[in-house]
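My main concern about presentation is that the manuscript never shows what a single data entry looks like. In essence, backbone conformation is discretised, so a fold becomes a row of integers matching the chain in length. An entry of this sort, consisting of the sequence and the corresponding backbone structure tokens, reads as follows:
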Amino acid sequence: MTGTVAYALLRKYVNDTLVGMGALKGAPCEVQSIDKVDGTTTVTLKWTDTTGTDHTQSFDIEDGISIVSVEVNTAGNLIIELSDGTSIDCGKINSQFTELPTPGVDNVGSILQYVGPNTADYTKGYFYECILDGGVYKWVQKDVQPGSGGGGSSKMYIATLLAANWVSGAQTVTINGITPSQNGVIGMLDGATDAEIAAARKALITVTSVNTNAVTFKCEQTPAVDITFGVLIPGGGGGGTGGDAELERDVTSNLAVGAIASNTTLPQGTTFTEFVEKLLITEIAPTISFSITKSGNVAHGSSYIETLTVGVTNMGTARSIDTIEWYEGSTLLQTDTIGSTTTGSWSYTMATATTDTTTFKAIVKYKKSNGSQVTTTKTASITFYYDKFHGSVASLTPSEADVTALTSDLATAKGATYTFTVSAARIAYAYPKSLGALTSIKDGNNFDITGSFTMTTETYTRSGASVDYYLYVLTDATTVSGYKVTFA
């Protein structure tokens, strides 16, 4: 191989490399397609090199892992099933059951709360632990300990209210879902003294008051005595919260599970209810729209009475829409207190007409499901433009009337492409000077013909204002048909 041949081959290799990569002029890249098959998303990119040759390249993106289901199994363990077929056993938790599962080896050590109707074996609201007793698995009642709340009584009233001498026509009450009958006895557990039980069994007992915390009976004896029995949630002290298992220490996740992100710390004292809420509830923002009566691009000289409107079509997990603040630019116009928990729309109408470019906004404040407030800002604008003109003129120095009589459109940009048909005349193009001077003028064959035009600065009266314009006129008259010109 001679040096000349080697040099030629080297030049060809370098040129092919630069052409393929678009290194000299750049090779704009676009997404040609996105296809998903069996959990794999294939993205195909396309670009054109500097020789005009098209290239494509594809790469695959595997789907992530999501939660399929969350349940508590018969052993009282929280099980999270993932989309990749694996599962996470979060360990035993205290849970509520309307029907306790069959006691067995998988249940040993589980403590479950029974919330079904009272039966001969189980009492509604009580906790039961699965044990192995003499070779037999069974559920046994778990002693209820007072919670850390206030210093109320720890006794719990069994809401059967079956009085031996229930007075016909006496007040009827329903507690814990059970309405008393006229026959039977009053039953109490956890701290009721013999004297209280004896007093409650006295003849002619009448319910005198009921609320969520206590029931008061009037015992018809001499003298009459009012006895109040506290109604407590199992595991809670009077006035306390109780009744919900808590984390005994801080727990930091090392993977994303449900709505809990990786590296999230659940502090000691987090209740089971709070844990499940964090796990299963993803905050969904309400769907909020904002519009104004007239928006977008308009011509100077027009005026509009704007009505601003906020719409909520989906509350998501939000509690309520609290307030809406209406703004013109940075000026606060009005604050409306909404306090609505439903969808709807609310409006504000401007007192004066809008005649110049203006941005309006609405600041919507709403409460998330946890009660914290979120601020969302929505904007909409109306933009006023002067006209620009194109066509043909006879003179190299046309009058204002000659130019403003040409075809017009909004001057949103200095650039434009038009097709001209003229006979022994000059092509003309005028637009507001504020948009800046042209950098090129090219014909339909992409030849630069900027030098064939004469540019001057003119002042025209538009909508009562004096506006400076750049005027480009073809220096020499011509005759053309369907002649394409691009101003840029």
